[in-house]
Amino acid sequence: MTYVGARGAGTLTDATGWELKPEGLCRGDVCVPVSSAEPADIWSALRWPLARSGDDVYLGEPVDHRRAATAGSVAPDFSLPDLAGRSHSLSDFRGKKVFLASWAPW
User: Fold this and answer.
1) CB-based contact 15:71 (threshold 8 Å)
2) How would you label 32-60 residue by residue, b for 16+ Cβ within 10 Å and e otherwise?
3) Looking at the whole model, is its pTM more than 0.70?
């Protein structure tokens, strides 16, 4: 089984930095007691996001971890034309929620 996380793919430790030890699931000095040795079960019990695809398990970080990592971040400004050719800059929408969708034919 391959685990995929923010740190890459591979073993659970390679992908997440967490290691399964007799005392529980540990990262550094922090250990979480677990009743199952299956990392996907552990992620579900912690209510952290995960997805499965075949033999791959994608382990996500909790929302509060992602939020803390991006707090105060500002997206770089850029400009793109709309279908009528009028240019719009991301900075035009500062302070508003913006949804960006992209598509590519490949």
Assistant:
1) no
2) eebeeeebbebbeeeeeebeeeeeebbbb
3) no
Tens-digit pLDDT profile for residues 58-79: 877 777 777 777 777 888 899 9
Phi, psi of 41 (to 5 degrees): -65, -40
Kindly state the helix (H) or strand (E) to which residue 30 belongs, with its residue range.
strand 30-32
In order of 1, 11, 76, 85, 103, the CA distances from 81 in angstroms are: 45, 44, 17, 5, 15
| In the chain, domain spans | 2-68
